[in-house]
């Protein structure tokens, strides 16, 4: 039996607030039109556009789920987490690193508090956004099985077009300061662990964290944390209607010459059918469907980390899928983190590398 000896990931008995939804992602890009071309092919809709910023949405009622701002350099900035009340914002505004409550000028309005987590990612706690009208989408495909054949004397085909993204599902972050960052989210936003993959010494390598919505089912993970040599974006994921949407996404993105990262397959932890693509800036975006949902009563699962644990079936995970993006600056930062982070050591770096070989 694996011994999870480190304190995170774990539930906090009395978090500051409990996040209700992953609201949006924030990006900076030197070429908004290049970003737009990929995201529309990926299945997002342009909601509002100027020369400085583009807001994208899915078909669900969320006012927007993806923001791209013009900037000289490429950067993943952070994300928004919806909270349940104005009182929640007031509670978060008392934290030492928090901004005052401000009125949002983004689509849907509302109010927000801006915070910075221990790894440097910006987090907007938002409340009071007005939902948009849901966009029309096709029906889920009717399945014939050996036991049940509801589709008789009829065929079905999905349109050959960009798949319909329903919603933003989750974001995965790489961390050097794993314990402090994971603890910050469990303490202040009430995230609870669904599953953790651990190294041979029992320390966490990946933690899949879900929202605590009580008896209401929540996605297996809304934020996941991966121990790494530095703080970085790993990937983001968007939910589609069904397997045919995932397959059509692959066809359309491949025909438009975008770079495929990994898939199609089915994850073991979370159960999603997945397909990963890289945007023009090298950032990984996932299509998925058929994921697990848990209520708050489901306990933490603990598993050994290795690349075979990433998928039950599908193409083998490419060697570069989880390989850190090494540049001179990231290498310097990694050396610094190895010296200063309580979560890192040469031994752990070797264990992380061996786990994915």
If you had to describe this structure to a student in words, what would you say it looks like?
The protein has 357 residues and is α+β, with helices and mostly antiparallel strands. It has a single domain, classed as 2,3-Dihydroxybiphenyl 1,2-Dioxygenase, domain 1 (Roll). Helix content is 19%, strand content 32%. It contains 6 helices and 20 strands. The strands form 3 sheets. It has a 10-stranded mixed β-sheet, with helices on one face. The longest helix is centred in the last third of the chain and has 13 residues. The protein is globular, with a radius of gyration of 20 Å. The two termini are 23 Å apart. The model has no long low-confidence stretch (mean pLDDT 94).
Tell me the major beta sheet. 10 strands, mixed
CATH second-level architecture:
Roll
Shape: globular
% residues in beta strands: 25-35%
Q: Compute the average pLDDT.
A: 94
Number of structurally distinct domains:
1
Number of strands: 20
Q: H/E order of the elements?
A: EHEEEEHEEEEHEEEEEHEEEEEEHH
Strand numbers in spatial order across the main sheet = 19-10-11-13-9-14-17-16-15-20
Superfamily at the CATH H level?
A: 2,3-Dihydroxybiphenyl 1,2-Dioxygenase, domain 1
What is the class in the CATH system? Alpha Beta
What proportion of the residues is helical, as a percent range? 10-25%
Number of helices: 6
Main structural class: alpha+beta
Q: What is the end-to-end distance?
A: 23 Å
Low-confidence stretches: none
Radius of gyration: 20 Å
